[in-house]
Amino acid sequence: MNFAVLSSLFIFFSLVCFQRLSAKTLSKNEGKHAWFPPRGWNSYDSFSWIISEEEFLKSAEIVSQRLRPFGYEYVVIDYLWYRRKVEGAYTDSLGFDVIDKWGRMAPDPGRWPSSNGGKGFTEVAKKVHNMGLKFGFHVMRGISTQAVNANTPILDSIKGGVYEEDGRQWTAKDIALTERACAWMPHGFMSVNTNLGAGRAFLRSLYKQYAEWGVDFVKHDCVFGDDFDLNEITVVSEVLKELDRPIVYSLSPGTRVTPAMAQEVNGLVNMYRITGDDWDTWGDVAAHFNISRDLSTANMIGAKGLLGKSWPDMDMLPLGTLTDPGSNEGPHRKCRLTIDEQRTQMTLWSMAKSPLMFGGDVRDLDDPTYKLLTNPILLEIDSFSTNNREFPYVTGMNGPRTRKQILSQGIRTFLTKVDKSDTRVLGLTSCKDSKPNGWSIKTLDQELAQICWNDNSGSRYLAPYCLYKRKLPLALDAEIIYKQKYGGKHHLLATDGMELCWDASPKGKPTSKEFNRGSFSPCKWDANQMWELNNNGTLLNSHSGLCATVNAVQDDAVSGGIRSWIATGRKGEIYLAFFNLNPVKTTISANISDLAKALPGRNLKVGSCKGSEVWSGKDLGIIGGSVSMTVEMHGCALFVLKCISSS
């Protein structure tokens, strides 16, 4: 029997075992929120916002037939399902949305005909459930600008009728925080005042309606990362606890997320994005290595979540047939990642136990993409592995090398040899973090002052990073309003010319690779540009409630080098992944004795392991002192090792 036949049989039996073990284990945890990283399909990468009911249900049917046996159980409609698909409508257009009399979004009946008569997504959810799947959709923060402009009444979903308090009825304009519009969709949505009973009542009415429609999954956007709104997240989480229907709660986006920010939300939610949008570029894939490492180090993988567990979400898998970001087109092009880059993405996502949400067009699911999505070893790792973390004890050399050459010629260790850059960027983090307490004020004259970051890197060559604070000239009535709303807060200027002010959140929706170096735009009275310097040295933003930091950036952090991850299987096997971020082939090695440094209670010696490599199908036999493989540029190797621990 040749190697190809043996390899096919191995994959077949692995798949059968995975499905049987998965079904048994998953059934034991039925009813627990996100006990394993959620898995499914989302419409955004292939349809942007323009998907119709017919297209969605056809896609759901294919997911049910081809992907559900592998644990892909959620089908999710992404954003703007309430926007009419007419000329002039796009991501941030105003006046094209369908809302009900209570200011709540309703499906566009032109694209979702079963919603006619106020049915919402009830009929769609029923059909999805009949396919054995779970139904989800995307929602934005707070309340829509359209509802505020119409000043719709607030529904009291507990008593029925208009919400009343303090002897009056409440409306959209009473609860809207117009200065806290979504930074990347400023004409679309804004926060609500959750300190008001009416604000909380509005959010409660939304999520009670979603439960009535039969929703199982909600992706809540413009509330995390740079757009952090902990108050709204907290209120929504409390409402979801009260519902009879379990709903998995997911946050987006994840621009500039830090472990401290993740620790503030993990107990309130089930998933939270940790980067900007991930698209099919190598830069986007590579941008996930640092943040996934940091969150695993902080023990955030599978931490306590809303009525179950929570998972750092590395975003959708943009594989197969796709559209373009923010497009008004449906699927029309193929994924631009090479097969090696796709394997790297899927392997990293699985080793970091990210939710797996496929984004490509399932109606055009090619065989290589299908095999990658359903690889039984990757799915086993994603669902059931433990001790998942970056493994720093790896070495690499460019170009193919024999083991003898590696040992004799010397080794370049990427993780300990990185050229530092003097580039510094503005960032945001939780004010509970210890990092942001480094700001102080320096007065230059009566009108002008600098707010400077005190660099603690120890470098003698870096001048302080400073922004300018100056009182802007205002008309008398505007000055009164400003003092009432923003007393003690101020703009931060890029130069003393006062032309541009620092935005806490970017005006566009950045992708994962677009590391935000500080966004400056014309100054205006917007909470996104309002900052308050506190006595403890923190610089607080009024839009997100996050604090400013200045970070040194290593320009080559994701442009090259090697990385590795390690995890333990449920039968004691060891999963070891090598990742080559270099633009050339690189031989990567790890000593067997070093594996125990990352695995509690394991003591491994030379000759104690045998194993195989997943992508090549190579049987490694009994492994000597080290495991080594030449990895293609931007590619990976994934080893399954069975080791005997010595006493």
From TrEMBL:
Record SUPFAM superfamilies: (Trans)glycosidases, Glycosyl hydrolase domain, Ricin B-like lectins
Alphabetized GO MF terms: alpha-galactosidase activity
GO biological process, one term: carbohydrate metabolic process
EC code(s) of this entry: 3.2.1.22
A Pfam family: Melibiase_2
The Alpha galactosidase C-terminal domain, residue ranges: 560-641
Keyword terms, alphabetized: Disulfide bond, Glycosidase, Hydrolase, Signal
Reaction catalysed by this enzyme: Hydrolysis of terminal, non-reducing alpha-D-galactose residues in alpha-D-galactosides, including galactose oligosaccharides, galactomannans and galactolipids
Signal peptide range in chain numbering: 1-23
Family membership: Belongs to the glycosyl hydrolase 27 family.
Record's protein name: Alpha-galactosidase
Native organism: Vitis rotundifolia
